[in-house]
Amino acid sequence: ERQRQRYPDPDWSASPEIPYLDCPLNGQLDLLHQVQLDPTGGSIGLGRVVGRREVNDGDWYYPCHFHKDPVMPGSLGIEAALQALRALAEGSPSRSKSSTVDWPLNSEWKWEFRGEVRPGTKELTVLVEVTEKIPQGNQVEWVASAIVTRDGKRIYRLPRISLLV
């Protein structure tokens, strides 16, 4: 409860008029099934995206974690948030072949872990809000904060993630 007071959950229904877009699923690491892009949303108006994944007990990653520990590796939750941020930066859930996406080498990331995605989970949701857009030569560093939830319960908080697009 103390954690919720320090970091209250944002309003998940802030963009009800914006439709969800289906994401192309070309491989195992395409982690989101739908995204809701709001390029002027978020608490400071730089952009917001909500991404969803329907979780299935037979998903490929459960047996790939530690021996007899069927959970989705936490790095995949971070990857889902980054995929949502990329969709917002590119303006589409379809990965553009013309955009170059890089990891900012001098950018600090943070991750707070509060739970796991286990068999029985129905939905993984990510909420990403852009906090800065920093020009870096011919690219822009998209800096954001993110929350990842399992069936509506927050399990990760990412105070700072970023991509160069």
Query: Which series of helices and strands comes N to C?
Result: HEEEHEEEE
CATH superfamily: Hotdog Thioesterase
What does the radius of gyration come to? Answer: 15 Å
Number of domains: 1
* Average residue pLDDT: 85
Largest sheet: 7 strands, antiparallel
Rough shape?
globular
- Portion in beta strands: 25-35%
Oligomer: single chain
Lateral arrangement of strands in the main beta sheet: 1-2-3-5-6-7-4
Proper CATH architecture:
Roll
What is the distance, rounded to the nearest whole angstrom, between the alpha carbons of the first and last residues? Answer: 37 Å
Number of separate helices: 2
Detail the topology: elements first, then pairings.
Blueprint: H1 2-6, E1 21-22, E2 34-38, E3 48-54, H2 74-90, E4 110-113, E5 123-136, E6 139-150, E7 153-164
Antiparallel strand pairs: 1-2, 2-3, 3-5, 4-7, 5-6, 6-7
